[in-house]
Model the fold of this input.
Amino acid sequence: MSDHPTKTYTNGEITVIWKQHKCIHSAVCFKSLPTVFDPRKRPWVSMDGASTAQIKETVSKCPSGALSLEENKPPEAEESNRPASMHITPNGPILVNGPVEVKDAKGNKTVYNKMIALCRCGASKNKPFCDGSHHIVEFKD
Done:
């Protein structure tokens, strides 16, 4: 059994994947679409709470990559030449919306096509990625 539980939720068209260990509890999903993402309920994801398009839009905003999705049917052609963009959040991580290549200290490269959150406070146990430690250390910029 994995130390990092992953849960899936589907509406037939798409499957939302939640990787609990990546979640930084930014509440972007809950604030954007509370009819689908409500941590006060069990299960906390209700796929019949909104349209597929609305769910896809909200999942694409997840700053940690804890939420992702898979198409349950052949995907439409996606725009792959879009430029990466960055947003520095107040007292929080740098959000990078891909595609972006991250190279670790050993030279291993990983390409991310969705949003990632990079640590600014220095306290993350998952560097270079944010793990929400900025809340614990009360990071202020």
